[in-house]
TrEMBL record:
Cofactor section: pyridoxal 5'-phosphate
Broad EC category: transferase
UniProt xrefs under CDD domains: CGS_like
InterPro entries in alphabetical order: Cys/Met-Metab_PyrdxlP-dep_enz (IPR000277), Cys_met_metab_PP (IPR054542), PyrdxlP-dep_Trfase (IPR015424), PyrdxlP-dep_Trfase_major (IPR015421), PyrdxlP-dep_Trfase_small (IPR015422)
Species of provenance: Micromonospora siamensis
UniProt name for this protein: Cystathionine gamma-synthase
Sites bearing N6-(pyridoxal phosphate)lysine, chain numbering: 228
Length: 408
């Protein structure tokens, strides 16, 4: 474990009640398999009625039995809500950490992590091809509050080590990265971060906990946009943090309540419903992506296919070491340059032209003009001929036919 940053270790405050600790029988210990945890962890049948599915507790406040005696610790839904608790417990179980916390969006989760661990004058190392919104959070918001950052190539351990400064509090990593699908060696970077007294945060959005569990490889905190694979149905925005260490987890829980960017009960419920099928969905995403990557690799109008499952990918070996399979995201560079890349995006019929990823339906986008437009002119600018696919779980032959007509 790294030295805990002062802002974490030094803070003293009243402990936010942990309703989830009370009144739950642990039917699902960590000895259960992933799919079992996805369906049952945090989701015991409801005590009063036996409802099999955690109800949507659409309430802002809770009646108290006496002054200072809230029932099971619930007093106000920003601080605690049973539907959110069910989701939080489930995510903690899936990532293998003691504390899971959910938020209104992935960026809200990131902001909470940053402002829990860092103070003005601190420094963070970020991926040089970070998710566009993450980069914007650092460059346009956190920097104004005095937080310094250095983009580094996270697939290069030496480059990350060189970017670390005495005031570095977090080494922030995405793996696979977005949209270039670079692979970071989580175990190696954990060692580098811990040597410097920094935390390793891993944005696990692209892999999902089914394919990769960063805490098992030494990460201190896992970040998710649950909007993507975790929710999986493109119907809800949300974010999550899972801490490897209870003390850090409780600091984050304090800030979750103090900063207030929580998700509502219905959003938590939808996300939890999505999680139940995460394992089977991810396997089909991977099956389809493997077929499509192989098809694109042989296509004359495609200059380069970027998919960690291909032996040609520079991060293939590291990915094979830390991931169960290689995911549903594929990027490729159009042989005909930017014009052709844009044309392919405009011509697909089944692949919907849209931002976001990780849903059951296939999506296509042009990162340079869409998700990563905010990185234009920065060190994080992406190639103009790049196309990104989020391969869904439709019939793969239909997806192949759609790409064939769009490339043709
Ligand atoms: C979408 C995304 C985010 C931001 O999450 P929101 O839910 O959109 O706020 C962060 N990281 C990655 C890798 C993402 O894809």
């Amino acid at each position: 474990m790294p030295t805990t940053p002062d802002s974490v270790a030094g803070a003293t405050h009243g402990r936010v009640p942990r309703p989830a600790e009370i009144g739950r029988t642990n039917v699902c210990g960590m000895s259960h398999g992933f799919e079992t945890l996805a369906i049952h962890a945090g989701q015991d049948p409801e005590a009063r009625t036996g409802a099999v599915i955690p109800p949507i507790y659409q309430t802002s406040t809770y009646a108290q039995d006496a002054v200072g005696a809230p029932r099971q610790g619930y007093e106000y839904s920003r601080s605690g809500n049973p539907t959110r608790d069910a989701l939080q417990e489930c995510l903690a179980a899936l990532e293998g950490g003691p504390v899971g916390l959910t938020f209104a969006s992935g960026l809200a989760a990131e902001d909470t992590l940053l402002r829990t661990v860092c103070k003005p004058g601190d420094h963070v190392v970020i991926p040089d091809d970070a998710y566009g919104g993450t980069y914007r959070l650092f460059a346009k918001v956190a920097e104004r509050w005095g937080l310094e950052y250095t983009p580094a190539k996270v697939s290069d351990v030496d480059a990350v080590r060189a970017a670390i400064r005495p005031n570095t509090k977090i080494v922030w990593v995405e793996t696979p990265t977005n949209p270039l699908l670079g692979i970071a060696d989580i175990a190696a970077l954990a060692a580098v971060a811990h040597e410097a007294g920094a935390l390793l945060a891993v944005d696990n959005t692209f892999a999902s906990p089914y394919l990769q569990q960063p805490i098992a490889h030494g990460a201190d905190v896992v970040v998710h946009s649950t909007t993507k694979y975790v929710g999986g149905h493109s119907d809800v925005v949300g974010g999550a943090l899972i801490a490897a260490d209870r003390a850090l987890g409780e600091e984050l829980r304090y800030h979750q309540n103090a900063m207030g960017a929580v998700n509502g009960p219905f959003d938590a419920w939808l996300t939890l419903r999505g999680i139940k099928t995460l394992g089977v969905r991810m396997d089909r995403h991977c099956d389809n992506a493997e077929r499509i990557a192989a098809y694109l690799e042989g296509h004359a109008k495609v200059a380069q296919v970027i998919y960690p499952g291909l032996p040609s990918h520079p991060g293939h070996e590291v990915a094979a070491k830390q991931m169960r399979r290689f995911g549903g995201m594929i990027s490729f560079r159009a042989a005909g340059g930017e014009e052709q890349a844009v044309e392919v995006c405009n011509r697909t019929k089944l692949f919907v032209l849209a931002e976001s990823l990780g849903g059951v339906e296939s999506l296509i986008e042009h990162p340079g003009r869409m998700t990563h437009a905010s990185a234009a002119g920065s060190p994080l600018e992406v190639p103009a001929d790049l196309v990104r696919l989020s391969v869904g779980i439709e019939t793969v032959d239909d997806l192949l036919a759609d790409l064939e007509q769009a490339l043709g």
